[in-house]
Each structure stands twice: as C-alpha cells, then as structure tokens.
Amino acid sequence: MKILVLNAGSSSQKSCLYEIADDHLPNEPPQPLWSGKVNWTQDRGVAEIEVKTATGAVLQESIYGDSRQAHVAYMLYSLSRGTTKVVGHLSEIDVVGHRVVHGGQQYRKSVVITEEVKKTIGNLSSLAPAHNPAALEGIEAIEQSLGDVTQVAVFDTGFHATLPEAAAIYPGPYEWVEQGIRRYGFHGISHQYCSHRAAQILQRDLASLRLITCHLGNGCSLAAVKNGNSIDTTMGFTPLDGLMMGSRSGSVDPGILIYLLRQSNYSAERLDYVLNKASGLRGISGVSSDLPQVIEAIAQGNYRAQLAWDMYVHHLRSGIGSMLPSLGGLDALVFTAGVGEKSAGIRQAACEAFGFLGLKIDPAKNQQQPIDEDIATPDSAVRVLVIRTQEDWAIAQQCWQLMPTK
Q1: Annotated binding residues for Mg(2+)
Q2: How far apart, in whole angstroms, are the C-alpha atoms of residue 347 and residue 313?
Q3: Rounded to 5 degrees, what angle do the CA atoms 30, 32, 36 make?
Q4: Which residues are annotated as a binding site for ATP?
Q5: 369 pLDDT more than 50
Q6: Can you tell me the mean pLDDT for 219-244?
Q7: Matching NCBIfam families, A to Z (predicted)?
C-alpha cells in the first residue's frame, strides 16, 4: 500500500510517500520512498521546492506565481517524473493522509475526508487560522492532482479528546462551554506517537504506563498520558497556552491583557502579534526564538539570554510537576521535537528538579545525541526517554488502519 502524507504549516507544505505491506505494519518507522517540501517563507510569490528520495536523488527549485495549490501540485508531479520519480503514475497512490491541526469537538478520531468534513475543517479555521486553511489547500491540491483518491484527516487535537472535563473546561462562565471554548490541546499526533514508541522501547504495555511527554520545539507542550490516554495537557483553546515557547508567551495573567487594552491602547491584532511572535525566548532574550542562538548569547555573558533560559527551565519544570498528581506517579519522562531531541542541557535541567522521585539521568548518555533511547541510570525509579517524533509516520499508520484490506 502506497500512502502519501501531507503536513501543512502556515508557511510550508511537507509531504512524504511510504510503502507498507497490506497485511501488517512494521514495528520500526520505515524510511519514506520520497519526501518533499514547499516553503513560502521567502519573497511573496516565490516557492522554494525541495525533494529527496530514499536513493539519494535531490531536486531543488524556486517556482514563481501566487498559486500555492499549483506549487504543491508541482511538488507532487516530481513523484512520477524526472530524477526523483518513485512511482510510474500518481494513480498508484492508495491513500493520502493530512495533518489537520484543529478538529474541534466534532472529530475525536481520524476520518475519511468527505465534503462535509472539508466544510467542518473550514468552519474551524477561526480556531486555527494559520493551519486549517493550509490543510484545506493541501486537500484540494490532492483532488486536483490525484482525482478521487481516498483522503484521511488526522487531527492534532484528536489525542486530547480523552481529557476529563475537569481538565478541559475553563473556570469562566458556563456559557463558554456552550460556545465551544475549552481546552483542546495540540501536538496530539506527536504525543500519541511518542507514547506508543515509549511503550515499545521499554517493552511495556502502554495501558500500564504513566508518562509525561514533553514536545519541545518552537511550540512547546506537555501531555500527561495514563493507560494510553491523554488526561492533561498544557496547550489549551489555542496553541498559545501553557509553557514558555520560542516566540509565544505561554500562560500569562489574563489581567495583563486587560491592562494593555485599557492603558496602552493595544488592539486585538497587536496583542495577537506580541503574544505569538514577540514573546517567549525571543521576547525575553532579545536575541532569537532559536534556543542554540540563545545559548551562544549566554556564553557571551548576555544577561537577558540567561534570564530567558532560566525562565524556560522554570516553566518546563513547573509544567511537569503539575501533571504528577493526575498521574499518581511517573514511570517515564519523554523528550521529543527539536529542543527535546537535541538539547542535552534542557533535558538535564528539567530532570534535576525531580531527583526526589528517584529520577536519575545518566549524564554521559544524555550528551551522546540519543535517539529512541533510555538515558536514565539503571537504578533510576523513573525512565527518561529521548524519542524522535515521527508525525508523518503516525499519520501513515492512521491511514493504513482506516483503509480496507485489499
């Protein structure tokens, strides 16, 4: 079975093609046959296209024109043409899976895409304005390029649909609940994948594990996972809630926002920009939203960069600690995404606070760029895992499970 995956961002569209046997899923994530990316972060009207194949073929081009759909279609044509050709014809693709950030309360699990599903994804764009419209563009590009192939929506909010109401409902007026204002949580595809992978690495039944998964990238979120279900998470109604992030503030006193609206004549647009683009590591350090650049500035004696690091660690530790009571203990702490996978310093700093649980990180293992490994000492009461998140593979797995056997 050939499964194409599209992962839409606000300024990019990533894609990859997997080939999986019809009768079983492999235990280890396979290498995709082909992967492609369209990037729109440069000048308006220019798309940077990069394609790679498992055999080492590479295509890099700049495409002009305003049609993002046409740019995606061009990337997809490279599947069956030129040096990056991996299929004879696009019709060989059996199913296409899409990462959709927001499924609202309507979609708790992955679904085959219909006109009704597309309409609902569009209606939910007000909750994910940077992402849901991009996912729709990808769905429509596939319709244009591949015709009536089966398409599947895999929702980032879906894994957190199991949150108990006490964790999901905000303590405002009950009318908020009726308006759909609640904690949805995000990064669900990553949290779910890492939970299953943790059980594999530990050779334990996922239903017996109490996990805290730390997705630390430019966006950051934690999830408390008990018996395979998400029971708490830090992101909320939007991905702005929770931990301090690269350029997002995370949780702040809502009274600050009222103060800024009244005293500093902030508009909704300015608040949106400040909280999402000019806060977090970038806002405090004044250097960058990128942690390695902040660390470089610390080495040069930059006070604000050091403050940004200290705050980031403080909020991470506090978030982890807040999840322990709901779990009733902790079997494994999992680090993933760009910072979680690459920053030994952040992992060390986070773990040091939990020695009282009997958690002991192995400093040597932590420094060795571990991937899908346990970096706790043998006598640690809590395992510490570094897992490379594989969202695309997780989406492919969902597609495989929804497709009827041939």
Answers
A1: 7, 391
A2: 9
A3: 155
A4: 14, 215-219
A5: yes
A6: 95
A7: ackA (TIGR00016)
